[in-house]
Amino acid sequence: MNPSTPFQSLILAAGMGTRMRSDTIKVLHPLLGTPLIGHVTRAALDAGAARVVPILGHQREQVEAWLRTQSYAEAIHPAFQDEQLGTAHAVACGLSALAPDIAYTLILSGDVPNLDAETLIAMINDAAGAGCDLAVMTAILDDPASYGRIIRSEQGHLNAIVEFKDATEDQRAITEINAGIYLARTAFLLDAIPTIMDAGTDNAQNEYYLTDLVALAAKNERAIAWPVATPELVQGVNDRLDLARATDFVRRRTLERWMRAGVTLIDPARTTIEPTATLEPDVILEPDVTICGSSHIARGAHIEQGCRITNSHVGPGARLLAYSYLTDARVDQNASIGPFAHLRPGADIGQDCKVGNFVEIKKTRLDQGAKASHLTYLGDAHVGRNANVGAGTITCNYDGQNKHRTTIGEGAFIGSNTALVAPISIGQGAYVGAGSTLTDDVPARALGIARGRQRNIEDWADPTPE
């Protein structure tokens, strides 16, 4: 579903968020791997926003720097609020960054990460269809706490929003709250915000309230309230407890989406999939699996208990045995990894390969059918097709200043407890004797061996005492 009208988005993200008790601004706190502002920005763009204007203040350089690293950076047009004088003042700081020819402006809060594109599109379509100047997203809460209250006329029309600190006891008893999400006709917004700024700050917080937009639009009965069906969608994050609740909500929503798409989760309560990851049908995830970042898990892959996968690709039918860790790695079709394997950045494991228990691999390619079954370190290496790397093999890739490469040819056999001192090349079909420390290349089909010859000394041990 697409929005029925073009829109742009303002995101209020200037406040520090002191209740987080942190040196980091609130909107940069991560929720399932993505800062809060990233979730809000992604929702706006997924809903169809033509441009996004984040209003930045505290730690503006850090927030802008993070936004510039994202794939959608070209759609970001930041504005700055040097002094935080209220939500209307924040919007005023962003007016010059808006495109006046885009019909509507969606105003979001940078600390409301649960919102999804579908909800925003539904609100935009309903508001545009009603022809109003302003739509306010609302929610009914059993405990409305300190949220602003929605004031309706006897006919049920939206009249005003009263902030909690300015509300009477009767108004505080109202359970319909302002969710802090607004859709305004851009022309109305450009006229109304200066009016609010000119009127001053006659309120308990001595701030310029964005909620005063409602009274201006309601004069001509051109303001509507848009109640959201799921109140959790508009839950704000003010402290660490709120962050934990929001994390749980987004986590459960993400898991439900993948289960409906054909992924099996043995125990959803003990599974975490970040929203940026993708999975295909017939994937099986055992308990305590965490999938992070841009990871992709292909059809039929089986991930056993305790695995953690970050920014990695797992191919069709591959199996990750228990407690294996992958970071910036690639595992191809039907490969077997683990248990207790560690694939570090640049690990590239080919089809039908085996990487066994307590094997660590970094910046290394294993061609189809290659095996490193146990207790091995392979760094800055290339292992040819069907080669076998014995237990205890180490590629000695670092000389104290520089890294060097190791090449193991197709069908080569590396005996157990071997040290390959790079740079070094083991030829196709070559053998390396167990226990060797090699510093020179081994030609194809040759046997390389570098160890002291065994010598037995008779009668070495004392006779067994009486």
- What does the average pLDDT come to? 96
Number of β-strand runs: 37
Shape: elongated
Class by SSE composition: alpha/beta
Separation, N- and C-terminal Cα atoms: 92 Å
Strand content: 25-35%
Count the helices. How many?
8
Helix content: 10-25%
Number of domains: 2
Name the CATH superfamily classification of the largest domain.
Answer: Spore Coat Polysaccharide Biosynthesis Protein SpsA, Chain A
Account of the protein in words:
With 466 residues, this protein is an alpha/beta fold. It has 2 domains: 7-238, Spore Coat Polysaccharide Biosynthesis Protein SpsA, Chain A (Alpha-Beta Complex); 241-448, UDP N-Acetylglucosamine Acyltransferase, domain 1 (3 Solenoid), CATH 2.160.10.10. It has 8 helices and 37 strands. The strands form 5 sheets. It has a 23-stranded parallel β-sheet that branches. The chain has a 7-stranded mixed β-sheet with strand order 5-4-1-6-10-7-11, sandwiched between helices. Helix 1 (36-47) crosses helix 4 (117-130), helix 3 (87-94) packs across helix 6 and helix 6 (186-199) crosses helix 7 (212-218). The radius of gyration is 30 Å and the shape is elongated.
Summary keywords:
UDP N-Acetylglucosamine Acyltransferase, domain 1; 8 helices; 466 residues; 23-stranded parallel β-sheet; alpha/beta; seven-stranded mixed β-sheet; Spore Coat Polysaccharide Biosynthesis Protein SpsA, Chain A
